[in-house]
Design brief:
heterodimer; A: alpha+beta; PmbA/TldD fold; 2 domains; 7-stranded mixed β-sheet; 10 helices; B: 480 residues; alpha+beta; 8-stranded mixed β-sheet; 5-stranded mixed barrel; 20% helix; 40% strand; globular
Chain lengths: 440, 480
C-alpha cells in the first residue's frame, strides 16, 4: 500500500502547475469481518479499500476531492487527472478562501507496526469453539489499516498497523447482557479464552433478579467504558475551538465564565501510546502531549490551523474536525477492590448508551444504562437494573459531584467501522459520582 | 469519474463452484458546497467506486468488497469470498438457498428536471452566499451557514440466477443554520433540523426565492429564541410538526420494526426491540388513527427505489394499520429466518458493506384534521418543530427528543415562543396517546442521510413523511 501511495502521489504531483499546492491523504484497509449471533455466523466477508483525499490550494481558493484507488495504475492515473482538472477549473469559479492552510514541507515520518495477528483463515476456528453454549453476539474486525499523507512540497508520512477487535455481548436468559471487547495486535488464544471466561463469570451476575429503580439521584460508579462514552461527547460540540467560537459548545462555561470541573479531573491528548498517527490530514504533526483540562481547569481547546487563522488563535494541529484523537484521562486513587464499599448504596454502571446533548450550553447529556449495570446495597451487588434514562450535566459528575477517580486506567478501543475501520481509542479510569440523575 | 465496466462479463468470468454468485457495483459521488460566516468552507467532490462479490456456499454467504474491477480482481475476490463462506458454513446461523436472492430484471432512475451540470460551482457558491447574508439578520447571529450536497449514485446488480438491476439516483441535501448567542444563551435554528431537508431531486430543488425567504425566517427565529421563555415542565398535550415527526417515526417505529433486530443480530450494537415475533398481527402499536407504510414508491422522497440490494422488487406495504402492527421491516433473509411478513429493505450503504434490514421511506399516512382543528383542540400544551437532540434505549422503548423551536398553545391558540422544548416517553404508550392526525395539507416530506446501524457499521439514507400530529399527556420540559 505504501508503494502504491508513493507511486500515485508522484504521478499526481507531476500534473501540478506553478502556484498550485496539493496535499494528499490516504486511508486504506485489508479487513476481515465475521458477524455473529447466538454463537453462530450471521455474515462474513473481506473488504479491501483504499482512498485518496486531495486538497488543492490555487488562486487563493481551497478545493477538495477524493477517489477510490482501484489498484490499476492506468485507471487510477486517469481518475487523479480528472480530479486535478476539476479542482483547477473550480479554483477559478468558487469564492476566495481567506483562511487558507498553506502546506509546509518540513518533516516526514514512517511508522509500521508489525504484529503476530489473527490469520484470516484461522479466525473462525479461533473464535467460535470457545463461545459455544452461550448466547454470544458481536463482530470480529481484523486486519491491516493504513494512513498516509504527503504534499507537493515533499513532506511524507506513513502509518501502518495490524489489529483485531472482537466486540461482543453475552446475553443471559432474562435478556440482561454483558459487554466485552477483546482487542489487540498479537493474537494469544489462551488470553482470548481467559478473557471470555471473565465475561461468562460476569454473566452469572446478570441472572440475578432485575431491580426496578425509581427516577431520582443516585450515588454512581462508572466503569472506564462508561467514562469513555462521556469523554467522547467532548469531541462533539465540546472541546473544539471552532465550536466555542460559533456558539455551539458545552465548554463555553469553562471558557467564558471560568467554571472549573473537579480538581480530581484531568484529561489530555496523548500520542505517546503510538496507537494513532501524530499527523493530521493536512500532514501537520501534533505535540506528544497536549493538556486539555488539568485539575479541573480548562487549559487548551483543540485548534486546527484553519480555526487558528479564522479566530486569530495558535494552532495545536488538531484534525480539521477538532475531535480528540488519543484522549488520556488521569487516574486517581480509588482502588477497584474498594469500589463497592465506597458506593455503599447506589449504582454500578458498566456501560451507557446513545448519548446526546440535551442542553449543550449547560453541559447536560442524556442517555441510557446498558449492559452490566447493577444496584448496590450494603456494598454488595443486589442485581442488574432495568434500563434507565439519565439526564445530567458533566459539570456535575466531572465537577462538584465527583467523589473519586479509579486508580487504574483502561484502554477502550475505538471499534467504529463507519466507512472504514477506525484506529486508536480512549484511555481512562472509572469514576465515582456522589449523585447522578435518572429521569425515566 | 466513473469508469464504465460490464459487470455481466465480470460475473460470467467467475469460476468458483459456489451455489450462487452475485455482483453489486456501486459508484457514488458527493459534491458538498458550504458557506459559513461568509466564506467557503467546503467545495469538494468525493467519489467511491467498487463492487461487492457475494457467493453462497453450503448455505452460507461470504463476501468480498473490492475496488479492483478488473476480471482478475473480481475472480480473486470471488475465490476469497468462497473460502470465507466455506470456512464459516459449519457455524452458519441459518442455511440459506438462492430463494433469498430472487431473480428480477429492471431499472430505476430517480426523478429530476435539471441535472448537476445545470448549475455551476460559481452560481451555487453565490446562491449559498446570498442565503448566508439572509441568515445573518443581526450581530447576535454569531455563526450561520448554508449547505448543498449533491449526490449521484449508480447501482448495478447481477447474479448467477439471472438478476440484472440497474438503479440511478440524483439526490440533494440542503441545510440552512443560524446560531444566535447572548451570554450562555445559545440558540440554533435550521431548515428542518439535523439535515432533515433531503430529497431525490435535481437542481430545480434549489429555488432561489424560496431559499432566501427561508434563510431570513431561520435567522429571525434564532434571534427570537434568545428572548423566548423557557419551555414549561409537566405533563401536557404536544403538537409535533412533520420535521420532528420524522425523527419520532424513525426511532420509535422504524428501528423497532427491523426484523434483524427482532432476531437479535443487532444486540451488540444498535440493540434489540420491544417488538416480539408474536406481536405481528396482534400488537396495538398505537391509536386507531395510526397508519404507517413502507413506501419506496413516493416520487422524490429520499429513499425511493425499485429493488433492494438482494434484488427483491420494492412495493408499498402497510406496517401498521389502524394502530395494529401487521408487517415487519425484513428483507428475504429475515423473512425466511423468522416467518414474519416483510418488505424489500435489504440494503447496503455501499460496495464495501453487506446488505442488512434497513428502513426506506417509512411514512405516517395523513388523517383528516386541519392545522387549525388540531391547535384549536388543545387547551394547554406546546407545539414543536425541528429536531436537535435524540436518544432512545436499545429496545426502542424510552426516548427523549429535543427540538429547536416551540410555541405555547393556550385555549386553542398558538401564543408565546418557547425555547429548549424537550419531551420524553415510552414508544408503545406514546403512540397510543396519538389523538389527532393532520390531513394532507399538513404533510411534510423529510429524511435523514445519517441513519447508522450494523456491524460493520453502515450509514444509509432514509425518508419519512408525516402530517402534523397531536399526542396527549406527554412529559415535556425545558433546559438547564
Amino acid at each position: 500500500m505504501e508503494i502504491k501511495f508513493k507511486n500515485i502521489s508522484e504521478v499526481i504531483y507531476s500534473h501540478l502547475k506553478k502556484d498550485e499546492l496539493l496535499t494528499l491523504s490516504f486511508t486504506g484497509e485489508e479487513s476481515q469481518f465475521i458477524r455473529l449471533n447466538n454463537a453462530k455466523i450471521r455474515q462474513t466477508g473481506l473488504v479491501h479499500d483504499a482512498d485518496i483525499h486531495m486538497k488543492m490550494i490555487a488562486n487563493g481558493r481551497t478545493c477538495t476531492g477524493s477517489f477510490t484507488l482501484s489498484g490499476n495504475d492506468d485507471m487510477d492515473t486517469k481518475r487523479a487527472g480528472v480530479e486535478i482538472e476539476r479542482m483547477r477549473l473550480e479554483s477559478t469559479q468558487i469564492l476566495e478562501d481567506p483562511y487558507l492552510i498553506i502546506p509546509e514541507g518540513s518533516g516526514s515520518s514512517r511508522e509500521i507496526k508489525n504484529s503476530n495477528g489473527l490469520n484470516f483463515k484461522d479466525a473462525v476456528d479461533a473464535i467460535l469453539p470457545a463461545v459455544q453454549g452461550v448466547d454470544f453476539v458481536g463482530i470480529l474486525s481484523n486486519g491491516k489499516m493504513y494512513r498516509g499523507n504527503s504534499n507537493s512540497l515533499g513532506q511524507e508520512h506513513w502509518f501502518e498497523t495490524e489489529s483485531f477487535s472482537l466486540d461482543y455481548s453475552l446475553v443471559a436468559t432474562n435478556h440482561q447482557m454483558v459487554k466485552g471487547t477483546f482487542a489487540g495486535t498479537d493474537w494469544d488464544q489462551n488470553e482470548y479464552e481467559g478473557y471470555l471466561k471473565q465475561s461468562k463469570k460476569k454473566l452469572e451476575l446478570m441472572e440475578l433478579s432485575p431491580v426496578k429503580l425509581e427516577t431520582g439521584n443516585y450515588k454512581t460508579w462508572f466503569e472506564p467504558a462508561a467514562v469513555s462514552d462521556f469523554l467522547s461527547m467532548f469531541s462533539w460540540n465540546g472541546i473544539s475551538e471552532a465550536s466555542i467560537q460559533q456558539g455551539c459548545s458545552g465548554f463555553g462555561k469553562m471558557r467564558n465564565e471560568n467554571v472549573r470541573l473537579s480538581s480530581k479531573f484531568s484529561i489530555s491528548e496523548d500520542f505517546s501510546l503510538g496507537l494513532v498517527p501524530k499527523f493530521n490530514s493536512d500532514g501537520e504533526v501534533s505535540a506528544e502531549e497536549l493538556k486539555i483540562i488539568s485539575s479541573g481547569e480548562l487549559k487548551n481547546t483543540l485548534i486546527s490551523s484553519r480555526t487558528a487563522n479564522e479566530y486569530n488563535r495558535t494552532s495545536n494541529f488538531a484534525e480539521s474536525g477538532e475531535y480528540l484523537r488519543s484522549p488520556f484521562m488521569e487516574p486517581g486513587s480509588l482502588d477497584q477492590s474498594d469500589v463497592l464499599k465506597q458506593i455503599d448504596k447506589g449504582l454500578y454502571l458498566s456501560n451507557i448508551h446513545y448519548l446526546n446533548w440535551s442542553d449543550n450550553p449547560n453541559g447536560r447529556i442524556t442517555g441510557l444504562t446498558r449492559y452490566a449495570c447493577f444496584w448496590v446495597e450494603n456494598s454488595e451487588i443486589v442485581g442488574p437494573i432495568n434500563t434507565m434514562r439519565f439526564d445530567d450535566s458533566f459539570y456535575n459528575y466531572f465537577g462538584d459531584n465527583l467523589l473519586a477517580v479509579g486508580n487504574k486506567t483502561e484502554f477502550i478501543p475505538n471499534t467504529s467501522t463507519y466507512g472504514n475501520r477506525e484506529i486508536g481509542g480512549t484511555t481512562c479510569p472509572g469514576i465515582l459520582a456522589d449523585s447522578f440523575a435518572l429521569t425515566l | 469519474m466513473r469508469n464504465k465496466i460490464s459487470i455481466k462479463s465480470l460475473l460470467d468470468a467467475v469460476t468458483v463452484p459456489a451455489d450462487w454468485v452475485g455482483l453489486r457495483e456501486v459508484y457514488e459521488s458527493n459534491t458538498p458546497r458550504m458557506i459559513r460566516d461568509g466564506v467557503p468552507v467546503s467545495n469538494g467532490h468525493y467519489s467511491t467506486h467498487g463492487a461487492m462479490v457475494e457467493v453462497l456456499v453450503n448455505g452460507q454467504f461470504g463476501y468480498f468488497g473490492t475496488p479492483d474491477l478488473s476480471q482478475s480482481g473480481i475472480e480473486l475476490a470471488a475465490k476469497k469470498a468462497y473460502d470465507q463462506a466455506k470456512a464459516a458454513s459449519k457455524y452458519a446461523l441459518h442455511h440459506f438457498t438462492d430463494e433469498v436472492r430472487p431473480k428480477n430484471i429492471g431499472r430505476y432512475s430517480s426523478p429530476f428536471e435539471k441535472d448537476l451540470r445545470s448549475i455551476s460551482a460559481k452560481e451555487l457558491n453565490m446562491l449559498l452566499l446570498d442565503a448566508y447574508n439572509n441568515l445573518k439578520v443581526s450581530d447576535k447571529i454569531v455563526s450561520a451557514s448554508s449547505l448543498a450536497n449533491v449526490i449521484q449514485t449508480n447501482f448495478h446488480y447481477v447474479s448467477s440466477n439471472g438478476s440484472d438491476v440497474a438503479q440511478d439516483f440524483l439526490m440533494l441535501e440542503f441545510d440552512l443554520s443560524a446560531t444566535a448567542v447572548d451570554g450562555q444563551n445559545q440558540q440554533t435554528r435550521t431548515f428542518g433540523g439535523m439535515r432533515g431537508t433531503c430529497r431525490q431531486a435535481g437542481m430545480e430543488f434549489l429555488d432561489q426565492m424560496e431559499i432566501l425567504a427561508q434563510a431570513n425566517k431561520i435567522g429571525e427565529q434564532a434571534l427570537e429564541l434568545l428572548d423566548a421563555d423557557e419551555t414549561p415542565a409537566g405533563e401536557m398535550d404536544i403538537v409535533i410538526a412533520p420535521d420532528q415527526m420524522m425523527l419520532q417515526i424513525h426511532e420509535s417505529i422504524g428501528h423497532a420494526l427491523e426484523v434483524d433486530r427482532i432476531l437479535g443480530d443487532e444486540r451488540n450494537y444498535a440493540g434489540w426491540s420491544f417488538v416480539k415475533p408474536e406481536d405481528f398481527g396482534n400488537l396495538q402499536y398505537g391509536s386507531k388513527l395510526m397508519n404507517v407504510t413502507f413506501d419506496p414508491t413516493v416520487s422524490s422522497e429520499f429513499a425511493s427505489y425499485a429493488y433492494d440490494d438482494g434484488g427483491l422488487k420494492a412495493e408499498r406495504e402497510y406496517l401498521i394499520k389502524e394502530g395494529i402492527l401487521v408487517r415487519g421491516l425484513g428483507g428475504k433473509e429475515s423473512q425466511v429466518r423468522s416467518g414474519i411478513d416483510g418488505v424489500a429493505n435489504f440494503r447496503a450503504s455501499s460496495w464495501n458493506r453487506a446488505p442488512i434490514d434497513r428502513m426506506a421511506n417509512i411514512n405516517l399516512e395523513p388523517g383528516d384534521s386541519s392545522f387549525d382543528d388540531i391547535i384549536g383542540s388543545v387547551e394547554k400544551g406546546i407545539y414543536v418543530e425541528s429536531n436537535r437532540s435524540w436518544s432512545i434505549d436499545d429496545y426502542r422503548n424510552k426516548f427523549q427528543f429535543g427540538c429547536e423551536y416551540g410555541k405555547l398553545i393556550e385555549n386553542g391558540k398558538l401564543t408565546k415562543t418557547i425555547k429548549n422544548p424537550n419531551y420524553r416517553g415510552i414508544s408503545n404508550p406514546f403512540w397510543n396517546s396519538l389523538k389527532m392526525v393532520g390531513n394532507g395539507d399538513t404533510n411534510g416530506i423529510y429524511g435523514t442521510p445519517n441513519c447508522g446501524k450494523g456491524e460493520p457499521n453502515q450509514v444509509i439514507r432514509v425518508g419519512h413523511a408525516s402530517p402534523l400530529c397531536l399526542f396527549e399527556n406527554v412529559q415535556v420540559f425545558g433546559g438547564a
